[in-house]
Amino acid sequence: MIAPIREFLRKNLPAQAYRSIDWVWWTGRHYLPRRGASLLSRRNPKVQSFPAKKTASKLKDQLGSINVIRVTKICHIMTWHGSDKGIGRHDYTKVYSALFHSLQDKPLRLFELGLGSGNPSMPFYMGENAKPGASLRGWREVFPSARIFGADLDRDILFQENRISTFYCDQLDQTAISSLWSQPEMQGGMDIIIDDGYHSFEANISFLDGSLKHLHPGGIYIVEDITRGALEEWRTVLENTYSHRFPNHEFVLVELPNAMNNDDNNMLVIRRNT
Ligand SMILES: C[S@@+](CC[C@H](N)C(=O)[O-])C[C@H]1O[C@@H](n2cnc3c(N)ncnc32)[C@H](O)[C@@H]1O
């Protein structure tokens, strides 16, 4: 559907009617063609688990078997709300569909760092079309019984809504990370933690160090947007440090194939087993 027609329909139809039309358009434009293509060919992520000598990893096998050609309902939900996790330069929602499909009705607790600021003075801001809170609203729809939490460096975009609470955090500052986790509403840990904030190795490690202990047994911790240049540093610390410090966790680096993005379409997936 061309942009002016979509804009006309968005302005003139009741929200639910426009959403239904968008879903039909999405199904014809993205879902059915990719579903057809995925029956004929596969494009699987490259996966590596740590420690490397431990050969059996169910998580690695599950992630390595995802066919990224196929788009999913979570891709549509995230794109609808204005997040960039769906289709385009990133393929994370295909991974999330595989990881979360059996969890969707559970009353779980999900936290995401990085709300999607539109302020150019914020590192990794989302540009002029930013919709702060897009992915949190997407998660609220994906998990209808869940409590959703978020945090960001940009204090101006923090908000509270039904089932969503957000807080200030600077992930480069351990004091700010501790104070985030000491908020009364944040007590009780999380089933899912996603780092989509400041995309650098140091910032990701800083938040991981202050936050992994808050992941529930059986929970999943994700770092999005790992650049190709940072993969080797990650391999080194996962192999030599984290897999020893946290032997009850599985660590898998996932490199997602994408013709539009050969740089930062990579993620770390951690599962806490016990
Ligand atoms: C890519 S955007 C998040 C997009 C959002 N998760 C989505 O999917 O729509 C990155 C966010 O990280 C925030 N950010 C940048 N540096 C940060 C820091 N040091 N600590 C916490 N958040 C930071 C930015 O303000 C921005 O809102």
Structure characteristics:
Rossmann fold, 2 domains, alpha/beta, 274 residues, binds S-adenosylmethionine
Task: Describe it.
- The chain has 274 residues and is α/β, with parallel strands linked by helices.
- It has 2 domains: 1-41, no CATH class; 43-272, Rossmann fold.
- The chain has 9 helices and 9 strands.
- It has helices at residues 3-12, 15-40, 58-64, 73-81, 92-100, 134-142, 174-181, 201-211, 231-245, and strands at 46-50, 109-113, 147-152, 160-161, 164-168, 190-195, 215-226, 249-255, 266-272.
- It has a 9-stranded mixed sheet with strand order 1-8-9-7-6-2-3-5-4, with helices on both faces.
- Strand 6 (190-195), helix 8 and strand 7 form a beta-alpha-beta unit.
- Helix 4 packs across helix 5 and helix 4 runs antiparallel to helix 6.
- The radius of gyration is 18 Å and the shape is globular.
- The mean pLDDT is 95.
- The protein binds S-adenosylmethionine.
- The site of S-adenosylmethionine has 27 residues, from strand 2 and helix 6.
